[in-house]
Amino acid sequence: MTALAPQLQSQAQPAPAPERTKHRLLERLKRAGPQTVQDLAANLGVSVPGARRHLLDLQEQGLIEARTERPGGRGRPQHVYVLTDRGEATFPKTYSALCVDVLRHLQILYGDEAVTRVLGARSAELTAQVQAALPAELPLEERITRFAAWLTELGFDAVAEPGDQAGEWQIVERNCPNLTVARSYPELCHSELRLFTDVLGLPVTRESRIACGQGQCRYRIGP
Question: CATH number for the 95-221 domain, one of 3.30.1050, 3.40.50, 3.30.1380, 1.10.760?
Fold first, then answer.
């Protein structure tokens, strides 16, 4: 054991895995705010070129962005990196728990009807927003494709697919960003179904639901 000690001590420590370094970069930006590449490299103990490579990868993933800012509003402008909304979303949030708590208190104080009315009002507001961007004169395929893209922006990872019958379409949501809330309050899923019907102006049937343990939410849109 003693004879081996010098040999072991002389061995270089393994470099951190690239993904671990990227995670540390994100953590530093989260905790310290805008940072230059030099600041990040010094804090993480990596070379400036190495930090630049990781930052470029994170930019390509849409997790960070570069800005030009004056430190404290004074001095020469510096090139700094900050988290994007997508980068912020990689850190744990308690929004779902907060939403469930608010709805629970609303239900206790004002009854089930209050929850339905609140979610209905939210659905109506979203419907108005989407309808403004999806004029009725657009071809059905384009409207459905744009609608799926809008859902994806909200985190549903949605795709539009032709249905089995002529003139029929399907929208498949492969993620539910509101899963915690939907499991506690099925009214949220009911309001989503109304949203589909109101936006598209066509019969819509939900054939599967993530909140019920299925792998995706699948909506069949009839002609």
Answer: 3.30.1380
